[in-house]
Amino acid sequence: MSMPVAALRRSPRAVTLNPAEVSERSIRRRVSVVWGLLYLNTLVYEPGSILKIPSFAGKGITQGALPLAILVALTINPKIRVRPNGFLCLLSLLVLDTVITAADPQHVGTVYRTFRLAEFVFALWLLTPWWGRSDMLLLRCHLRWILVALGTVAVGLLVAPGHALAQGGRLSGVIWPMGPTQIAQYAAIAIGIIVLLWLARFLSGRITLIGVVLMTPILLLTHTRTALAALAAGILVAGLSLFSVNARVRKFFAAGAVLVSIGVATAASVLTSWLARGEDTQGLTSLTGRTNFWALVLSQPRTKFEVLFGFGLSNASVDGLPIDSNWFASYMMEGLFGVIVCAMILVWLFTNSFFQPRGAQRALALFLVTYGMVASFTEVGFTDVSTYLLNLVVAASLLIVPFSRRETT
Q1: Is 271 domain-assigned?
Q2: Are 385 and 69 in contact (CB under 8 A)?
Q3: Which residue from 122, 144, 183, 408 lies 20 to 30 Å from 31 (Cα-Cα)?
Q4: 404 in a domain, yes or no?
Q5: What's the rounded mean pLDDT across residues 187-194?
């Protein structure tokens, strides 16, 4: 018998797995598939791919991903066993709000978006038995699919750099159409998760270095200030939660303070120019014109019902102009009720994290929630189906205590 064959037979991998291990592996894979389909459903398809995908086909892929995700989720949770928790209860209130407004819809799209949000939240309920796992299953699935999306962006940049940088030098996705702010969010979230996993000693320094080196240029090429600010705030808050119990965090903050000081002293003009993006003072003070759009939101004529519950789910725009704010979009689509529920979601997550023991899961949750809170002021966030909503779902799953000391399988 040859040595390789003998080694294979002695290897534990060559031994048939017991039924429990086979079931656990199958469940993890299907949870990852469900999460990938939910992630795909959050992507908005617009013409512009170098693959020349027809618009109807691109939209069909994203829209069909959601019912398929529910079907796959039902294969691992056929009895529809769920874990009641404050986060999804609050999210269900948003669904209730949209159902109320959809009862008298102004557009057919309102009904479709309402049904889509209800489906999305139902799929999240089906995954609740796998929240709170010590292996952070949903976080790993989330990071995996973010890296897949960023991989397509990197390939597009290598294959068609002129097309990828056509929007004023800002990086866009051309394999699957993605905007600069969308790519910046993915890159910032990936960097934050990787750094925090390294600080908590879940990743080696080599893997962390490779991840940060690959993701940082993508983030910088998008020229998105919101993502940078949210990333810095998220790592700061998450790091401070580990500061007193983790020596690596203290060294990281000390080294970061030195590097930032040197960078500001030696490259202040370059940083200022990069952050300004060629805008004048008026453009900066109006947040690239966003405040003008917000004024349009507030000036819309409303009945008392529309003040309370909004106009219903839409593409988060007014007079064809994007709102670019979670709070103004929420007021526009879901009224004051929606704004209050969105605020309660953030308060619930922050309050719940306060009562969790210090550790990696708490730090990662704080990073995701802080990122979402900062970005919500200048980007549409978690009022509807979006990756921002998935970020908060992952944060909520990290703050849930398992059913028992034994993992759910």
Answers
A1: no
A2: no
A3: 183
A4: no
A5: 97
